[in-house]
Write a structure and sequence with these properties.
42% of the residues lie in helices and 17% in strands. It has helices spanning 50-64, 77-86, 101-114, 124-134, 157-161, 173-183, 209-216, 236-249, 263-275, 291-296, 312-319, 332-335, 350-362, 364-381, 384-403, and strands at 2-4, 8-9, 12-13, 37-41, 68-73, 89-92, 118-121, 141-146, 167-170, 190-192, 224-228, 254-260, 282-286, 300-303, 324-327, 343-345. Strand 14, helix 11 (312-319) and strand 15 (324-327) form a beta-alpha-beta unit.
């Protein structure tokens, strides 16, 4: 969890402890004039999880802009090391469950001792712990992330509607409409901040797709179709079950399924591949840390999810100028304009996905044109730099409002 700490003076919140100036190319734009102290908090620690990546990148971006950034997570030496390398302070808190009184007290104490003005929580346990801390002496502006496309319920809506929550941040306009309607929350309390892609990491000039293709035993020119995420809601079976149709039109096409949690899951997926009669044409991989190289090795990247905010994989693929095909779900249409920056298919439509994939493979000039437009779209609205500009402004606004409380 990343906590951005905003300095206090004699118990009152102040939005700037010192004046800063200059430019930091790593995050883009001018370094802010007022120094903030912020906590980003999340109970998860795996950087293979999108919410963890976004929390970590928020903290890293704040630190690079001259703010004091604190990431609060469960104890994890790998995360602690990554934070140290990035100039982000890491604090371990148990975050065992939503009624973890020990963690609530710990957060309240950190907020008091460090003068925390903003806590931005990214998952349910972190949300509950931060709310609890406000009843135990913790004084800070509370920002809550909502990244899943499901309606709020009678059980969790009060957590978002609470007057102790200053803003709810959602990752797309589609999600904002759901949160406002299902939670009966004022629209001006819900802010849209698109998740961002690190354009330095996902840079077409910096990746080595040939290494991955060699690992997979692919000859030059063999078209590879990539799907990242091996969970039921990711819809990977839709692409697998329709892949024979793709190969009927593009005989040498290969399919890459990435993201099996462990070897047991990989064996299950490989059995499904064999059952579909596709042994030898499908590669199945565990979760990878070299995702930029993996995506760049593909001729087209497919996201067949049944539900999503905006899928991280399609942002990353477009940043690399790799053509994409995605489900018309959630906020995906806010990034992908069908036929302009990619192709959209109704979720679960196996024939539709096969046709869209085939179109990308047999019309490479059209596919490359869409991918170039997609990269421009990512650069203008879905990069880490743009996200940090919006978050930084939001944190300042919440801090100013908190001064009057």
């Amino acid at each position: 969890m990343l906590v951005i700490l905003l300095k206090r003076n004699c118990g009152r919140r102040v939005t700037g402890a010192r004046i800063m100036s200059g430019r930091n190319s790593a995050v883009g734009g001018v370094v802010s004039e007022t120094r903030l102290t912020v906590i980003e908090m999340i109970e998860k620690v795996s950087l293979g999880t999108g919410s963890v990546v976004q929390a970590f990148e928020a903290a890293r971006g704040l630190a690079a802009r001259g703010h004091q950034a604190i990431l609060v997570t469960r104890p994890d030496p790998v995360m602690a090391g990554r934070c140290q390398q990035s100039g982000v302070e890491h604090i371990a808190v148990p975050l065992r469950h939503e009624l973890d009184l020990r963690s609530m007290r710990r957060l309240a104490r950190i907020a008091t001792e460090r003068g925390v003005d903003i806590v931005h929580v990214h998952k349910g346990i972190a949300h509950s712990v931060a709310l609890g801390a406000t009843f135990l002496g913790g004084h800070f502006g509370l920002v809550v992330n909502r990244g899943v496309p499901f309606p709020l319920t009678r059980l969790n809506a009060p957590k978002y509607r609470s007057r102790r929550v200053d803003r709810v941040v959602v990752v797309c306009e589609f999600l904002k409409a759901i949160v406002v309607a299902s939670g009966r929350i004022a629209a001006d309390k819900v802010a849209v901040v698109y998740a961002g892609v690190d354009l330095d990491r996902f840079d077409p000039a910096r990746v080595t797709p040939s290494r991955v293709r060699t690992e997979l035993g692919l000859a030059p020119g063999v078209p590879l179709v990539g799907v990242v995420g091996i969970r039921p809601e990711k819809g990977w079976t839709v692409v697998l079950d329709g892949f024979a149709r793709v190969r009927h039109e593009v005989a040498d096409a290969r399919l890459l399924l990435v993201g099996c949690h462990d070897e047991a899951v990989r064996r299950e997926v490989e059995a499904r591949v064999a059952g579909a009669g596709l042994t030898g044409t499908v590669n199945v991989l565990l979760t990878r840390s070299d995702i930029p190289d993996v995506l760049a090795a593909c001729a087209v990247v497919v996201d067949p999810s049944f539900a999503a905010g905006i899928t991280g994989t399609i942002r990353e693929a477009l940043a690399l100028e790799v053509p994409v095909v995605a489900s018309r779900v959630g906020g995906n249409p806010e990034l992908i304009e069908d036929g302009v920056t990619g192709l959209l298919v109704e979720p679960g439509d196996g024939a539709g996905f096969a046709a869209a994939i085939t179109r990308m493979l047999v019309s490479p000039d059209e596919a490359r044109s869409m991918a170039r437009c997609g990269r421009d779209r990512v650069r203008s609205g879905f990069s880490t730099v743009v996200r940090m500009d919006r978050l930084e402004g939001l944190y300042r606004q919440v801090a100013r409002e908190a001064q009057g409380r």
